UniProtKB/TrEMBL annotation, chains A, B:
Domain HTH tetR-type: 13-73
InterPro entries: DNA-bd_HTH_TetR-type_CS, Homeodomain-like_sf, HTH-type_TetR-like_transc_reg, HTH_TetR, Tet_transcr_reg_TetR-rel_C_sf, TetR_C
Gene3D superfamilies to which the protein is assigned, alphabetical: Tetracycline Repressor, domain 2
PANTHER family registered for this protein in UniProt: HTH-TYPE TRANSCRIPTIONAL REGULATOR RUTR, TETR-FAMILY TRANSCRIPTIONAL REGULATOR
Highest taxon above the source species: Bacteria
Ranges of the DNA-binding region feature: 36-55
Organism (species): Kribbella karoonensis
Record protein name field: TetR/AcrR family transcriptional regulator
Keyword terms, alphabetized: DNA-binding, Transcription, Transcription regulation
Keyword Transcription: yes
DNA sequence: GCGGTTTCGCTACGATTAGTATCGATACCG
DNA sequence: CGGTATCGATACTAATCGTAGCGAAACCGC
């Protein structure tokens, strides 16, 4: 039985939201590499050791920040074209959020040669969307993973090359292309 | 007039190709972060200082390696569907090359907050393909940049999430999707 | 109020890395 | 052989990740 009683000892201060916000803000200002854990802690107003007590590494912290930043997808499951458009526009907004694209690229970089981090990435970030999209769009796992690659990959590549989010005309092309692909 | 006479002094040893090969091999084995310039130099058999005499930073070295790794696109300019398929399959092979995807992610990460590196990236890596594709496919700059985002972004996202190249079935879907999009 | 338990802030530290400085040795030209 | 530019090697600075240790603080049950 899940003992819902509070465990003994000093409770954790509830600063996760502030840490996530400071993480994105710092990455946006300085880039992934120069966004040190020290600076993120200072921006939050807590000690660096407190961050390392909650997340095992900088990559895990940033992945948790991305999971927190990407929220649940607002899909109806009724009109596939509408859901495809809604999902893509949701991704566009999320990736355009300051710091998100830089955080993504940094985590991808760290995940090379760090299987634990890649596992966290695939499980905590991609899996929830895979499940929701399979259900709402009625597609196979392979198909949904392909769509996620196309949408998020396209948006991240644009941000990586130009530093600017995708313009509306290209977003509309992306939506139409995937609506046709999934029809 | 380009004076073709050799400048005085000891000539540069022609080790660029070996450095590029060692860069990709080291990044493939250790990941971008742990692929230190020291290790790349040692794998090449030269001194670290020699590398810094030719490329101003690790990011510039890796970008040059990517430019060297991606070669010229074999397009005919006659059959658009065939050219689209050829270009995508060329990208698939290039991104699947050991170390290339990791190098890409690392350069994107470094390019955040390093405008000089981003300029090198866009100019030396993306521009040649933009021009060739605009010519061969007869498309606008905006359209070609969109296609590059979709193709390379999709392939890199798959590599970043799974560490494995895209399987043939997904490649075929990608080709068909873009052939329809550009018809 | 008091002991027990856990988290917090702080400081210090080891290991690793990017990039620079320096200097003697080396390779090529005329 | 002299002039010139590169090479190899070593040493160095400045960051950065992640860890260890310790006293202080917060909360609980009594």
């Amino acid at each position: 039985m899940a003992s819902s009683t509070r465990p003994p000892g000093r409770p954790r201060s509830s600063v996760d939201a502030e840490v996530f916000a400071a993480t994105l803000r710092t990455i946006d200002e300085l880039g992934y590499t120069r966004a040190t854990v020290d600076r993120i802690a200072a921006a939050t107003g807590i000690a660096k050791t407190t961050i390392y007590r909650r997340w095992p590494s900088k990559g895990a912290l940033v992945t948790a920040t991305l999971v927190d930043s990407f929220g649940p997808l607002p899909l109806t499951g009724k009109d596939r074209d509408a859901d495809v458009a809604a999902a893509i526009r949701y991704g566009v907004r999320a990736v355009a959020e300051p710091g998100v694209a830089a955080a993504f690229a940094g985590v991808f970089t760290d995940a090379i040669g760090d299987p634990a981090l890649r596992e966290i990435l695939a499980t905590q970030l991609q899996d929830p969307y895979r499940k929701v999209l399979m259900e709402a769009l009625g597609l196979s796992e392979q198909r949904v993973l392909f769509v996620i690659d196309v949408v998020i990959g396209t948006l991240l590549h644009r941000m990586g090359m130009t530093g600017e989010p995708m313009v509306e005309a290209d977003v509309q092309d992306l939506i139409r292309m995937l609506q046709r692909e999934l029809r």
